[in-house]
Amino acid sequence: MQVIIVPNKEEMGKRAAALIAEQMRAKPQFVLGLATGSTPLPLYQELIRMNKAGELDFSTAITFNLDEYVGLPPTHDQSYRCFMNVNLFDHININKAATHVPDGMAPDPDVSCEAYECMIEDIGGIDCQVLGIGSNGHIAFNEPGSSLASRTRVVKLTKSTIKDNSRFFARTEDVPTRAISMGIGTVLEAEGIVLLAYGANKADAVAKALEGPVTVSVPASALQLHPRVHWIIAEDAASKLRLEWER
Ligand code: GLP
Question: For the segment 189-200, what is each residue's pLDDT rounded down to a tens digit?
Answer without folding.
Answer: 999 999 999 999
